[in-house]
Amino acid sequence: QVEVAESGGGSVQAGGSLRLSCLVSSGITFSASGMGWYRQAPGKQRELVANITRSGIVNYAEAVQGRFTISRINAKNTLYLQMNSLKSDDTAVYYCNVAGAWWDYWGQGTQVTVSS
């Protein structure tokens, strides 16, 4: 059973920062996985925030470019999302995804609320 657990969400004021973490339990080869952060705001579809390939190539949604940084530490089976200069539009549930040749797992999500 592979478990994907996000943490680090919370409530902050606009302009503040948060760091999300995603811990993946054993059962897959973490270093061979592509990883991503997605978010879903109320009444909206889930959207990609950022992703990072197994070789470390990163990609960001235009809305977060320059404010968010995705990173991973394979030795810790952990993915991170550093979020700076948060805006009210960033309010959403943030989900972690881990995918590979034959696996695709999602976490339960962590709430991020940004007040203006």
Spell out the blueprint of helices and strands.
Elements lengths: L3 E4 L2 E4 L4 E7 L9 E7 L6 E6 L5 E3 L7 E6 L4 E6 L8 E8 L4 E3 L3 E6 L1
Parallel strand pairs: 2-11
Antiparallel strand pairs: 1-3, 3-8, 4-5, 4-9, 5-6, 7-8, 9-10, 9-11
List the main descriptive attributes of the protein structure presented here:
mainly beta, 116 residues, 7-stranded mixed sheet
> Which residues form runs of ≥5 with pLDDT under 50?
none
Percent in helix: under 10%
Distance linking N and C termini: 40 Å
Helices and strands, in order, run as EEEEEEEEEEE
Overall pLDDT level: 96
The percent range for strand residues is over 45%
State the shape.
globular
Write a structural description.
With 116 residues, this protein is mainly β. It contains no helices and 11 strands. Strands 2, 4, 5, 6, 9, 10 and 11 form a 7-stranded mixed β-sheet that branches. Strands 1-3-8-7 form a 4-stranded antiparallel β-sheet, with no helix packed on it. It starts with a strand and ends with a strand. The mean pLDDT is 96.
Concise synopsis of the structure shown:
The chain has no helices and eleven strands.
